[in-house]
Design goal:
- The complex is a heterodimer of chains A (353) and B (430).
- Chain A is an alpha/beta fold and 353 residues long.
- Chain A has a domain of 213 residues: Rossmann fold, CATH 3.40.50.
- Chain A is built from twelve helices and 13 strands.
- In chain A, helix 1 links the parallel strand 1 and strand 2.
- In chain A, helix 3 packs parallel to helix 4.
- Chain A is globular.
- The two termini of chain A are 33 Å apart.
- The C terminus of chain A is likely disordered.
- With 430 residues, chain B is of the alpha/beta class.
- Chain B has a seven-stranded mixed β-sheet with strand order 1-9-6-2-5-3-4, sandwiched between helices. A two-stranded antiparallel sheet of chain B has the order 7-8.
- The radius of gyration of chain B is 35 Å and the shape is extended.
- The chains are: A alpha/beta (353), B alpha/beta (430).
- At the A-B interface, strand 12, helix 7 and helix 12 of A face helix 9, helix 10, helix 12, helix 13 and strand 4 of B.
C-alpha cells in the first residue's frame, strides 16, 4: 500500500470521529481523508474532505468508487440515539448503515482494508461472565435489544464480509468505554451527574480507554495493516466504588429495580441515558483481556484505566472531600510513617500478561 | 395455691384502663394522696399526667418539702400501708415489693412539683452553650491521648498515623484491585480479621499437612463441601492464609455473583466465577485456587448423608489443572457437616425464589436469627499429597477417560481421608 492512500471515515459529525479524521489527514502515509456523515460536523475538519451522505442508502457506493477509496474506517455505530432521534432511527443507522457500507465495500475492487470500531459491549454483562473476556468468547446471554444487539449484528456482518472478501484486511477493534475530558457518552454523562446513583450491593469492575488512545489505536490499525479482532482497553481496572471515591462525589445506592426507574427519570430530564446495557454494566461490570492487542496488533495504550479516569475527573468540579481533609489535617500532626500497604498486584493485561 | 387476693369493692374507684381523660385504676392507686389526687383529676379531666400531680403538690408545698426527702428514705411499707390498708393484708410480701416503685414515683412527683414551684424550669434556649463547653481543651487532649494509648499501645503515634493513612487510602480510592476485583488490603484487615476468631475460637480448626501447599506457583486445592452455608470455604481461606501466608482464591457458583452484596464481597475477597476460563486464567497467573466440585449437591445434602462425597461435577477442575499443569491438592474437611445439620428442605419455595434449597435445621427457622449460629463443632483440615498433572502430555485435557480417572482418584483420596479423620475424632464437639 504505502503512499497515496485514500481513507474514508464514517461518523465524522461526532467529536471522536472528527478528531480522528483530522489527525489521520496530517499523517504522511495518507494521501486523502474523506469524512462521511448525515450531518455536517460542528468543529473544524482540517484537511478532511467532507461528503454529506447517508450510509443507509447506496450513494455511499458511488462515493467509494468515485474517490478510489482503499481504506474504510467505520466508526458510526452509535451507543445512544442522542440527536438521531428515537431508538428506531438509531438501529437503522447502526445496522442498515453498516450493511450498506459493507455491501458498497464488497463491490468496490479498490478497497484493501476495513477498520471497524466496535465496543466491548458486545460481550454483555451478567453474573455468569468470566472475569476477563478474550476475543474468542461470546456473550453469556445474547443481547435482545439496544446498542449491544446492534453491535453484535454489525460484528456479524463484518465477519460475513471478511469471509466474502478474504483479500481485504479486516480489523475489528472492540474498545472499552471511552473516557476523557471531551467525551460525550452515556457513561461519561453518568459520571457527570451531581449525585451518582449506584446499584445497591453490586460493585462492578470498570475498564476505560482514553480518547487519545482511541485515536491512536485507530490510526495504528489503519497504518499497520493487521487483520483480526482485538480488545482495546487501558491497563488495570477500577471498581465503581473506587472510581467514585477518587471523584469525591456522593453516591446513592439504590436497589436494582429502583435504579432502572431513576434511569428513566434521568433520561426524561436529559441528564443521562441509563440504557439497559449500561445498567447491566453498572451492575456486573466487565473486564477484557488485552494480551492480543499487545502481541498481535502491537499497540500500547498510553493511559491506564486509572490515569484515563483521573484525567476525566480533573475536568469535573471537585467534590466535597470533607472527611479526607479532616484525616489529612490529623495525619499532619502525627509523625510520618512508611507505607505498609500490601505488595503491588499484577494488574490486568500487564506487559507480562 | 395461695389465697386469692381480696379487693373490697369500692376502695379503688371504677375499674378499667385509663382513657385520654381519665387515669386507669392502677394509675390512681399510684397517686400519693389518694383523695387529693383523685379529685382534680376527675374535675379537670386533663390529658397530661403531670398536671394532676402539680396541683396536688402546690397547695401543700411547705408540707411536701420536708416530706419529700424523708419519704425517699422512709421504710417503703409506710405509705401504702396508710393509703391502702385493706389491700395489703392478704399478701404482704408481694405487696411490699410492688410498693417500692410506688413510693419512688410518688416522691419523684412530689419533687417535681416542688422544684416547679420554687424555680421555673430551664428552657432549651436559656441553657446557653452545650454542656461540653465547660471542659477545658487540655482535658480533651489528655483524654484523647489516653484513649489512643489504650487502643494502640505505647507506640500509638505511628500506629495511629498508619491507621489514618489506611483510612485516607480507602477514602480517596488510592488502592489497586486485580483483574478479578480482589482487594488484598480490605481482605487482610477486615474479612480475615473477622473470620480468624471464628476459625480459632469457635471451630478450633486444626490444620494438617500444610506443607503440601506449594509456597509459590499455581496449585488447585480441591475440597469436600458441606455445611448448608459455605462456611467451610471461608474457614479454609483463613486457615491457609494464616498457616502458609498465601491467599486462597475460591471459585464460586454463579448464584454467588447474582446476589447483591454477597457477590461484591466475594469478589473483594478474591473469589471469581467457577468457569473454565477463570480457573485456567488464575492457575496460569500462579494463584492458589480453591474449588468445591460437589457444589450445591455437597452443601445442601441432608444430615443423614454426611461425609458421603457427592458427584464431582463434570471434572472441569481436572481439565483446568491438566491444561495448566498445576498440582491438585486434595483437602478433607471434617466438622463442617455438623454446623447446621440439614434435616429438611422446602423445594417449592426454593424454586420460587430461585435458590438451590431452603434449609431447615433443628434450630432454623424455629429459633429465628438465633438458629443461624453454627454449632461449635471441632474442625479438622487435612491437606493430602499433591497429585501432579504436569507429567501428562499436552492433549491430556481432551481425553475424557483420563479426566474421569484423575477425578476419581482425587475423589477417592478425599473420601478415604475423611473416613480416617472420622475414626480419629473422639467426638463432634471436642
Amino acid at each position: 500500500m504505502g503512499v497515496g492512500r485514500t481513507v474514508l471515515v464514517t461518523g465524522v459529525s461526532r467529536d471522536l470521529g472528527r478528531t480522528f479524521a483530522r489527525t489521520l489527514a496530517t499523517d504522511p502515509g495518507v494521501n486523502r481523508v474523506i469524512g462521511v456523515d448525515v450531518m455536517p460536523p460542528r468543529g473544524d475538519l482540517g484537511d478532511v474532505t467532507f461528503v454529506r451522505a447517508d450510509i443507509r442508502n447506496p450513494v455511499i457506493a458511488k462515493v467509494i468508487a468515485k474517490e478510489d477509496v482503499d481504506t474504510v474506517v467505520h466508526m458510526s455505530v452509535i451507543a445512544t440515539p442522542g440527536s438521531a432521534g428515537a431508538r428506531g432511527t438509531m438501529k437503522e443507522l447502526n445496522v442498515i448503515g453498516s450493511m450498506q457500507l459493507l455491501a458498497a465495500c464488497q463491490k468496490a475492487e479498490t478497497v484493501r482494508q476495513l477498520v471497524v470500531k466496535s465496543s466491548t459491549t458486545a460481550y454483555g454483562a451478567s453474573s455468569r461472565d468470566p472475569a476477563m473476556f478474550t476475543e474468542d468468547m461470546e456473550p453469556r446471554r445474547p443481547p435482545r435489544s439496544g446498542y449491544a444487539k446492534d453491535v453484535n449484528e454489525v460484528e456479524r456482518y463484518v465477519r460475513g464480509f471478511a469471509r466474502r472478501r478474504p483479500d481485504v484486511t479486516v480489523t475489528l477493534l472492540r474498545c472499552a468505554n471511552v473516557i476523557g475530558p471531551r467525551v460525550v457518552s452515556p457513561l461519561a454523562s453518568y459520571f457527570r451527574l451531581p449525585v451518582i446513583p449506584t446499584v445497591l450491593g453490586f460493585d462492578p469492575r470498570l475498564q476505560f480507554l482514553h480518547e487519545t488512545d482511541l485515536n491512536r489505536v485507530l490510526r495504528h490499525a489503519v497504518l499497520s495493516d493487521v487483520a483480526g479482532t482485538f480488545n482495546v482497553a487501558g491497563d488495570g481496572l477500577l471498581m465503581l466504588s473506587q472510581a467514585l471515591r477518587r471523584m469525591g462525589r456522593t453516591s446513592v445506592p439504590l436497589p436494582g429495580p429502583a435504579f432502572g426507574g431513576v434511569g428513566s427519570v434521568l433520561k426524561s430530564a436529559r441528564m443521562a441515558d441509563l440504557s439497559p446495557e449500561l445498567v447491566a454494566f453498572l451492575t456486573y461490570g466487565r473486564g477484557v483481556d488485552t494480551t492480543r492487542m499487545r502481541t498481535e496488533l502491537g499497540f500500547e495504550p498510553s493511559y491506564s484505566t486509572a490515569a484515563a479516569f483521573a484525567e476525566f475527573v480533573g475536568t469535573l468540579p471537585p467534590g466535597g472531600r470533607r472527611a479526607e481533609r479532616v484525616l489529612a489535617s490529623l495525619a499532619d500532626r502525627l509523625p510520618p510513617v512508611d507505607e505498609d500497604r500490601p505488595a503491588q498486584l499484577t494488574v490486568a493485561g500487564g506487559k507480562d500478561g | 395455691m395461695a389465697d386469692a387476693e381480696i379487693i373490697p369493692i369500692g376502695t379503688r374507684g371504677r375499674p378499667g384502663r385509663g382513657t385520654g381523660t381519665r387515669p386507669s385504676s392502677a394509675a390512681r392507686g399510684l397517686a400519693p394522696k389518694a383523695g387529693a389526687a383523685r379529685k382534680p383529676a376527675k374535675a379537670d379531666a386533663t390529658p397530661t399526667p403531670e398536671k394532676p400531680a402539680s396541683p396536688a403538690a402546690t397547695p401543700d408545698a411547705p408540707a411536701a418539702t420536708p416530706q419529700a426527702p424523708a419519704a425517699r428514705k422512709a421504710a417503703p411499707a409506710k405509705k401504702p400501708a396508710a393509703a391502702k390498708p385493706a389491700a395489703t393484708k392478704p399478701e404482704p410480701v408481694i405487696r411490699m415489693a410492688e410498693a417500692a416503685p410506688v413510693i419512688e414515683t410518688a416522691s419523684l412527683l412530689d419533687g417535681l412539683g416542688d422544684s416547679a414551684s420554687a424555680v421555673p424550669a430551664a428552657r432549651t434556649e436559656e441553657r446557653g452553650l452545650s454542656p461540653l463547653a465547660g471542659i477545658p481543651v487540655g482535658d480533651w487532649l489528655a483524654a484523647f491521648q489516653h484513649a489512643a494509648r489504650e487502643l494502640f499501645g505505647d507506640q500509638w503515634e505511628p500506629q495511629l498515623a498508619r491507621f489514618l493513612a489506611f483510612l485516607r487510602r480507602r477514602l480517596t480510592g488510592d488502592y489497586t484491585v486485580d483483574e478479578y476485583g480482589f482487594d488484598p488490603e480490605v481482605t487482610e484487615r477486615f474479612f480475615m480479621a473477622a473470620l480468624r476468631p471464628i476459625a480459632q475460637k469457635w471451630f478450633r480448626v486444626e490444620v494438617r499437612g500444610i506443607e503440601n501447599i506449594p509456597t509459590e506457583g499455581g496449585a488447585l486445592v480441591v475440597s469436600n463441601h458441606s455445611g448448608t452455608i459455605p462456611v467451610d470455604g471461608l474457614m479454609t481461606m483463613v486457615s491457609i492464609h494464616d498457616q502458609s501466608g498465601r491467599y486462597l482464591r475460591p471459585l464460586g457458583a454463579d448464584l454467588v455473583f447474582r446476589l447483591p452484596l454477597v457477590g461484591s464481597i466475594a469478589r473483594k475477597g478474591g473469589a471469581t466465577l467457577a468457569c473454565n476460563e477463570d480457573a485456567e486464567r488464575m492457575l496460569r497467573g500462579g494463584e492458589l485456587v480453591g474449588v468445591w466440585p460437589e457444589g450445591f449437591k455437597g452443601i445442601g445434602k441432608p444430615f443423614s448423608e454426611r461425609y458421603k462425597l457427592q458427584r464431582f461435577g463434570r471434572g472441569g477442575f481436572v481439565s483446568a489443572a491438566l491444561r495448566t499443569g498445576v498440582p491438585i491438592i486434595p483437602l478433607s474437611v471434617v466438622g463442617a457437616e455438623e454446623i447446621y445439620p440439614l434435616v429438611g428442605n422446602i423445594p417449592s419455595l426454593a424454586r420460587l425464589i430461585g435458590v438451590p434449597y431452603i434449609p431447615i435445621t433443628p434450630f432454623f427457622p424455629l429459633l429465628g436469627p438465633l438458629g443461624l449460629i453454627p454449632l461449635p463443632s471441632k474442625w479438622l483440615l487435612e491437606f493430602g499429597e499433591p497429585i501432579r498433572t504436569d507429567e501428562y502430555d499436552a492433549g491430556a485435557a481432551e481425553d475424557p477417560m483420563l479426566v474421569f480417572n484423575v477425578t476419581d482418584q482425587v475423589r477417592e483420596t478425599i473420601q478415604q481421608t475423611l473416613y480416617s479423620l472420622l475414626m480419629q475424632r473422639e467426638s463432634v464437639f471436642k
